[in-house]
What we know:
It holds the Pfam family WD40. By secondary structure, the protein is of the alpha+beta class.
Amino acid sequence: MAHMMLGNAAVAAVLVLFAAVVGSVCRSPAVRHVAWLLVLLKLVTPPLFNIPLPILPAPRVELPAGQPTLLTTTPAGAVSPLAGNTTPRPTWWDRLRDYGAVEWAVGVWAAGSAVWFVWQCRRIVRFRRRLRDAEDAGEEVNAAVARIARELGIANPPPVRIASGIGSPMLWGAGRSTVVLFPSELLTRLGPEARDTLLAHELAHFHRRDHWVRLLEFVATGLYWWHPAVWMARAGIEAAEEECCDSWVVAGLAASPRRYAEALLATVDFIAESQRPCLPPAACGANRGTKLLYRRLTGIMHAERPSRIRGAAALVYVPLAAALVFQPVLQAASPQVLEPFSVASIALPTNAPPTRCPAPRKLIEPSAWATARAPGGAVTAIARDHEVVLRGADGADHVLGPGKPVALAFAPTGNRAATAGPGAAVRLWDDGGRLLADRYAPADARAVAYTPDGTRLLVLDAAGGISVFDPATLAPLDRWAVDGPANSITCTPDGRAVVIAFGSWLDADVGWTECWSIAEHRKMASYTAASAVGATRLSPDGRTLVVGSWDGLVAWRGLPQGDLIAERQLPKNLVAAAAFSPDAGTLPLEPPPPPVQVQGWPEVQVAPVANR
């Protein structure tokens, strides 16, 4: 979701530049209004198509021949024998310090949005309480509203209410609850003609449906409160709306420009005299900007009825409107491979003094919390804290992005891989790390698995849905759903059923596994577990089920009855690494020996070396 919103923010920044150019060269407020409105629409429109932009730096540069590399990661599947006892449990402060700048930025973003919506909703509730004392405008005002509505072509005009304590006449609400609010103190200062011009202005807002634009501004500002494009678009939209409504009042209704200008000045004087006038969110009220007021008063004297956007102007907005459904996706550029060089090929002068070459620097590779090897071992997927890379036989790394996938599965042939995440993204890669196809699941993708024959790709999402895709094109083939917090999915060796792991961090003591038929969408068996299950593994003959819980408790059960064979407490990272790949190869198929208890010494947990 964060990547999608950042993509929208980037496109919106480009649209802001276009709207600024339109505002400087175009005099029509209707054209400027549409230009600024496209900015807000882009911010809240989910993208349907991605445009890959390979502009990020290359993920890896090959070193010259003969330069050693120091690897600090443990071998794939290896587990320290004392990992469960020597590693202290991290505190909450340690977990916070492990978060990077990206996680902190997303947290501040979400917190700011939450504060914005809570604050604005509180203002809305307080204003609705104030409206309880609002009164009907009376027969004279209602008759004027009906007459103005007929001239504007409004069949059902909103009712007018008289209230005290509000700053200016305004249009507020949405749908059937939309009303025109008029300050009772200002009503006594204005004559009938000046009052009618202000009422016509608010009805013009209603006729243009500007109150729905206020709701769009409310949502976009809450989601992108940090983006300057939001505030620039809001200012541009409100200014264009006021000028359009002024044109409707003077040119469309043949009102007196002088009386209308005097009414605006009287409203400005009333706002200046008011003590903290109340203006709720999502309300079409008077703008107190000096520059905008001067421009409005100047335009009133030469007002013309605003024309509709047609012809060449409409053609300009067609490609811009198409940008609402597209999103740029930043990808890493192709890795730059340096040719190895030979020291003998460098010609040195015979009389040159010997030089001392510095020792080559050793590169420390970031640690990996999980690995998965393709059938045959030619390609290896390495999951790190902030990325997942695909390492080929030549040692070149290719980042699988943008965003970090949460699960990965290799095709039985080993030449393709499928990833789940970030979010609902499901992507298909070749063995060189090139993106072949992508699709979005109905909910956040949790796990992905191929059937043993490689003819189907199964994706498990956060809503419990299991989607079946074509492994070549990701075209949807089938879908059904299960109940409960599902975490991972594993196919049986015969390819007829899947085993699904269930459990939640919120209720760590409840977990279970279920076996479902792929063709019949029917639950065949269910087995309880002592805690929330994160990953499962099946033996090649399908007679043993290995169940790994998030707390590190691993159980071996005989199928199909589900008889408990053994239980062992193993390190938690063993299960986390197993959940990354659907074959769960880090889970041992055979139960390790029980812990050895030596008299006078604490109990030592012997952890097995996985058979990856």
